[in-house]
Write a structure and sequence with these properties.
Chain B: It holds the Pfam family Bac_globin. Chain B: Keywords: Heme, Iron, Metal-binding, Oxygen transport, Transport. The complex is a heterodimer of chains A (328) and B (125). By secondary structure, chain A is an alpha/beta fold. Helices cover 20% and strands 29% of the residues of chain A. In chain A, a hairpin with a 2-residue loop joins β6 and β7. Chain B has one domain: Globin-like, CATH 1.10.490.10. The chains are: A alpha/beta (328), B mainly alpha (125). Chain A binds chain B through residues 34-43, 59-60, 299, 302-303, 306-307, 311-312, 315, and chain B through 9, 14-15, 18-19, 23, 26-27, 30-31, 39, 41, 43-45, 48-50, 52-53, 55-57, 61-65.
């Protein structure tokens, strides 16, 4: 084994024989967080940008992180030259064309954007949409990979929300809009088709979850799939019929719409989606859990799912932080 | 150094032991009403990674913790009222976790002594 070249965004360094990437970076005074140097704390996690890193350098990482070629610098003795990215990599944008606008409920817009070139994305990831004046907002992708030229989004109109108001009222079919590379780690990988899945979403948190479910069913997922979608009132729910039909077509898919305020009409469960879900499922040991929506719901449920037996390795989440309050 | 002079970290089982311990330890901590409020606004996944680093250190493994880091990392909790009683509760869960993993008492005592040595920094004294 001869010395290997490690290329970062700003540096090119040499990793000596038997030396870890972390030690090489530190020797060259390149700023990288680290702590245990033993593969336990995961603080020195970085990403290989030109192919898979050595497998043993990915020990203990979540499947989606492995999938995106993240690895632990402290465990990595390179077999060949590597290009790595430390910290957030710059985001590039591609222009798409708006081809569809449809209301899913009074406050949620289904926006469809199509592209000339196919995109590499996973349902559940998100992109940044950029308006011509530079205003940027993140939205989850709601469709699956089968539609590689198309992305759909559920855009909830927020009181005083500059982007969402504009998307609802001014953005028109035929307009061009800049869309970033897909990002995020809350998505489905078909590496265990027998694993049971719990998905909990509030409001437009249904978007990534619906995409993940479609993706799972497309891969023939055989474990039980439980979706709990919640809103304050029935008006905030959507795709009720679509989800019910999906549940009819796939006996392993179970759908429970929930409302947290007032009495629930027939067929809808009264209560917060996350609480209803946790009360209904006895144990989440070995389950895969997806949580999308209100940050507080996501954070609380993550903890409760962990206490109910799910491991953090199997919990995927995307908290929707918003700049303004939702329309009541 | 002779081949038998293994570290406490290695004697406990290295990274695999840390992974096993972190889950058991965290379930104990989050189930304990005396201390779980300190984690109300914490991203537990990131916290679990920090906890792995902490246990690596407590197990006497290689680490990069300094007293200053410990002080900085816990200052907001001290403002929330973190005191000796909470530190004791965490110690109790740490030793309880190791007992559950059938770690011999002499090793538990060594881990406890390392964790105990962070008390003044954690409590910002």
């Amino acid at each position: 084994m001869s010395p290997k070249k490690i290329t970062t965004a700003d540096h090119e360094i040499v990793c000596q024989e038997g030396e870890s990437v972390l030690d090489a970076l530190l020797r060259e005074h390149i700023d990288i967080p680290y702590s245990c140097k033993e593969g336990a704390c995961q603080s020195c996690m970085i990403r290989s940008t030109d192919g898979a890193p050595p497998t043993n350098a990915q020990k203990g990482l979540k499947d989606v992180l492995k999938h995106q070629n993240y690895f632990l610098a402290c465990l990595c003795i390179p077999h060949e030259d590597m290009h790595v990215s430390i910290g957030d990599s710059p985001v590039t944008f591609t222009d798409g064309t708006v081809t569809g606008k449809e209301l899913l409920n009074p406050e949620t817009l289904l926006l469809t954007i199509e592209f000339d070139e196919p995109l590499d994305f996973y349902a559940g990831q998100f992109v940044n949409l950029k308006r011509a004046d530079g205003l940027i907002r993140s939205y989850s992708i709601a469709n699956n990979r089968v539609h590689a030229h198309k992305l759909t989004f559920h855009i909830r109109r927020l009181a005083g929300g500059r982007f969402s108001e504009w998307a609802h009222q001014e953005l028109a079919v035929g307009d061009k809009i800049a869309v970033s590379d897909p990002q995020g780690l809350c998505y489905y990988l078909p590496n265990d088709l027998e694993q049971n899945m719990l998905l909990v979403g509030t409001g437009s948190g249904l978007a990534p979850l619906a995409g993940i479910i479609e993706e799972a069913l497309h891969h023939g997922h055989r474990g039980e799939i439980h979706l709990y979608h919640g809103s304050r009132e029935v008006d905030g729910l959507y795709w009720i019929d679509e989800m019910r039909q999906l549940a009819k077509a796939h006996p392993n898919f179970h759908y429970t719409p929930c409302v947290s305020r007032g009495d629930a009409p027939a067929g809808i469960t009264q209560g917060r989606a996350n609480e209803v879900a946790l009360a209904a499922l006895p144990s989440l040991k070995e389950w895969r859990v997806y949580l999308c929506g209100h940050p507080e719901m996501v954070n609380q449920t993550k903890r409760k799912a962990f206490l109910k037996g799910a491991s953090f390795q199997n919990i995927y989440s995307d908290a929707f932080h918003v700049a303004s309050s939702t329309l009541e | 150094m002779s081949a038998t002079a293994t570290t406490l970290y290695e004697q406990l089982g290295g990274e695999a032991a840390v992974n096993a311990a972190v889950d058991i330890f965290y379930r104990k901590v989050l189930d304990d009403h005396r201390i779980n409020r300190f984690f109300d606004h914490t991203d537990m996944e990131k916290q679990a990674a920090k906890q792995k680093a902490f246990l690596t250190m407590a197990f006497g493994g290689p680490n990069n913790y300094s007293g200053a880091d410990m002080r900085r990392g816990h200052a907001h909790l001290v403002k929330m009222g973190l005191d000796d009683s909470h530190f004791d509760a965490v110690m109790e869960h740490l030793t309880g976790t190791l007992r559950e993993l059938n770690v011999p008492q002499n090793l538990i005592d060594q881990v406890a002594a390392i964790a105990e040595s962070t008390r003044t920094d954690v409590l910002g004294r």
